Structure formats: C-alpha cells, structure tokens
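Let's practice the habit of predicting before peeking. Look at the sequence and jot down your guess about where helices and strands might fall. Then scroll down.
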Amino acid sequence: MTVQLDGRCLTLDELIRVARGGEEATLAAQSYPRMEASRRLIEETLAGGKPVYGVNTGFGKFSDVAIAAADVVKLQRNLVLSCCVGVGTPLPSEVVRAMMLLRANSLAAGDSGVRPVLVEHLVELLNRGVHPVVPSQGSVGASGDLAPLAHLSLVLMGRGHAAVDGEIVTGGEALRRAALEPLELQAKEGLSLCNGTQAMTALTALAVHDAARLADSADVVAALSAEALRAVAAAFDERLHRSRPHAGQIASAANLRRLLGDSPIVAAAAGERVQDAYALRCLPQVHGASRDAIAYVRGVVETEMNSVTDNPLVYPREGDVLSGGNFHGQPLALAADFLGIAVAELANISERRTERLLNPALNLGLPAFLTSEGGLNDGFMVAQYTAAALVSENKVLAHPASVDSIPTSANQEDHVSMGSIGARHAREIVANATRVLAVELLCASQAMDLRGLVPGARTAAAKALLRARVPMLVEDRELDSDIELAADLIRSGALLAVLQD
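Done guessing? Here is the structure:
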C-alpha cells in the first residue's frame, strides 16, 4: 500500500503506517496543478519586484530589509543554515518519518509556492529510508518548529547528517546512497521547509495514537484488579452512566461490563459491601474523562496534519501572497499539554489500584505484597515504588508548557507556544503510564492466581496473555524484565484482543 499525499486527506492511521510500518508515500496527481500554480505566482511576484516576506525580504526582525534579486537563492540557503541550532538527543526515526510525511503533505496542498521537485525529493528520502538526524530541543513553537525542520531540510541540500540502514552518514553520502542529487533551494523554499508545526504535530500524533490504545488497555487491566478485589459491579451499571452521558465514561463503563459481566467472583461479591473506594468505583468516570481528552486531542492533530502552516501563503486564483501566522503552534501546544495531563491521570489511578492489591489492610484477604512467604520474600513491594516514581515524574512532566512564553527575534515574535516541549513531554508521559499499568497488570494477575478462583472469560484471557510471557511470582526474582514484558503486551495492543466479540 502507498499513502497518497494531497494536503487534505492524510489520516492518523496512515501516518502510523508510514512512521512505524515503513509504508511508502507518493504525491497525488491532483496536488501538481496547485503546486505549479502557486509556484508561478511566486516567480511572477519576484520578477515584478513587489516586496514579499521571506521571498525578497529578510526574516523575523529583518523583515524590513530588502534582498537583491541576485541574493534571493542565497537567502534561502542561509535561512536553513542559520536555523540549524537544535541540541539534545536526536528524535527517534519514527518521529522523523512522521515529520517528513507531514511536511510533504503540507507542501502538497499547493499553498506554499514551492516547486513540485522539492516535495518529490522529500518523499523520495522518506521512501528510501533516509532519516535526517534531528535534535529534539530548540523549538519554541511559534515560527513553527524552525530548528527541527531546518535539520530535516539540510539533507535535501546534501548537508547535515542522516541515518541510512542503521548508520549515521553525512547528508551528501545519504543522497548518494539514495541516488538523489542535492537541491539548490529557490525563492521561498527554505522558508517553506522550515516554517511549520510538523515536529510538534508528529510527536503529538504518535503520542495520541498510543494514548488511545492505552486507555483501552487501562480498562482491561483495571477489570483484572476489580475482579481480584471483588469489586461492587453496580458502579458500572449502564443506567447509572446514562444519567451522566459523557462519551468516554459510557465507553469505559461498557468495557468494564463486557469484561466482568460473566465473572463468578464479582457476582459472588454482590451484597458484601455497598460501595468500593474511588479507584474502583469511579473507574468509568476517571478513565472516561481521559478518553474524552484523548479524543479531543486526536481531532486537533488530524486537523493540523492537513493544514498549511508556513508563511507567507500563496493564493494564485486571487493573485495574493498573504503573510500571516499559521505557523504558531498554540493549537498543538494546548492539545499536547491536555494529552499529557489526561494520560498522567490513567497512571495516577492505576498506581492507587496497585496499592490496594498489595496492602493487606485493603486487599480483602490477599497476602501482603502478594507473596506467600512475606519477610523472606518482598513480592511486589518494590514494584509499587517504581509505579510511584513514574507517577511522580509524570506530575512534573504534565506541568503545561503552553503557559510559558519567552519573546524571540527582538520582540518581533513576542508570544510563542512552547508546543514542541509539551509534545515531547506527552510522549514521555505515555511511556511512563504504560509501565505503571504494566506493574498493575502483574499485580492483578498475581492476585488472581493467589485467589485460586475461576475468573470471567475475558479477564482469564487477559491473564493468560500475560502468563504466556511472565510466570507467576513464586519467590523473589528480578522484576524489571517482567515489567517490560507486561509493558510490551500493553504497548503492542495485544491485550485488547479480549475486548473483541
């Protein structure tokens, strides 16, 4: 399969297939007339001598400096070079691939004024597995992700570095291996490559895809804990949730009923207590609120994936080249912060369920820390420390990056979004939350084994998936690999098979 890029119709699922599955992309036929028309207008405007930002003027605070016609090409080269100020650990290849796809899709919309050959080269780099080395830090998220996109663009010029077949090589060598020639950027093309939100969009897109899967997995893991703790199932009754009809809450409650509906353990527990603690009783409300937040963020991401976010933009039908601010990352910045907060809450309540499973004062007759020889063995005591540490780290990472702004370019860019910071943090929070849920999955499965009772069919299937990878803890052993195996089960989506009919 090949993903068609026209600037309008790219989906999140297609992005995941390209970024993680190595699927190829191609420019849709209908994108060429639009790109060619907007390019003609740029060339006509340049020939007429009319000042246009970033075409024949300087950038940022230098926007009032006229650039001679003989220096227009050098201007674009200099912009890319001057923006290569990124620092820090390089972004993973899946993020870089998503950035390349998104940048090509945005340019394919035909509002940027670049030559089609530029977009074709970008797509070919992607398809031939040439992944530019892009430092993760340096974007303030206002004139787009200038630094990350500049490092991405360098390789098109035969400069910078790229990963090819697992080896880091120079940009020139990467092009040679891909059988491509270096491009000399023409008027506006450097600006069109660097100006955009594709780094923060790529990071948030991958994170929101993983977060949606994590929300479903959280329902499965929580159902195992609820069964092990003999939960009062009345809290998941459909009538109760129709009375407060938030979509996410209704979905989580339905999942819990599906998972626990045939559980003889939960049925036998009916009438033992009137209600449970919030970590069990309020599962649909807490998980559901996170689900609704994740759905909101997905909507923002899918809109941004099919947006044109450089400056100025070109409208050949009207003959206009308009300077604006579509590069400002505020929509993504708020969404990424919201995503981090929502996923952090999935981890918060998971850790509290783990505590209830381990604490002999709360776990309804299970052995302390889920070990039969307490004292000689610590069981899962210290695994909860890891969950607590990750939850605490998430609280720091979930501080909104978007509430900060430091003006840049001599106060020309006097409000910035810090969106790429929030996007990177959201991605870290998803990774941490996955491991917190992995700890809960290990503990809930251990608790069910210790109960020795017959569970429901779906929870039994979930536990069996874990037990195919991780045996019951009989005596103390290293649990780090157990946590990673459980996390992989969650991360891969394999656990979600138990929700299917």
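How did you do? The CA atoms of residues 156 and 324 lie 26 Å apart.
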